[in-house]
Amino acid sequence: MEEMTFEQAMKRLEQIVTQLEAGEAPLDKSMALFEEGTKLSAFLSKTLDEAEQKVLLIQKKDGEEVPFDLDA
To answer: How far is the first Cα of the chain from the last one, in angstroms, to the nearest whole number?
Structure first.
């Protein structure tokens, strides 16, 4: 999964959700999709956490965190 980009992982997760919501897959296929979706979700969460940490580091000024200004 590390070879996927964030966008690719998000798109695949959306596909999985659509398939599961349709309810047409047999149980074993649904379980495999659910497992894949869980792994993708963890990957996406980790990637977002890492991005947030990078943003916080960029925002630091003189040892203090500077609030993110959306109006700037």
So the answer is: 35
43 vs 46: CA distance, rounded Å: 5
Q: What's the CA gap between 7 and 58, in Å, rounded? A: 23
Q: How far is CA 64 from CA 9, 20, 51, 57, 60, in A?
A: 34, 45, 19, 10, 5
Q: Angle CA(19)–CA(21)–CA(24) in degrees, nearest 5?
A: 60
Distance of alpha carbon 54 from alpha carbon 50, whole angstroms: 6
How does pLDDT run across 14-47, given as a tens digit for each residue? 999 999 999 999 999 999 999 999 999 999 999 9
The one-letter code for the residue type at 48 is L
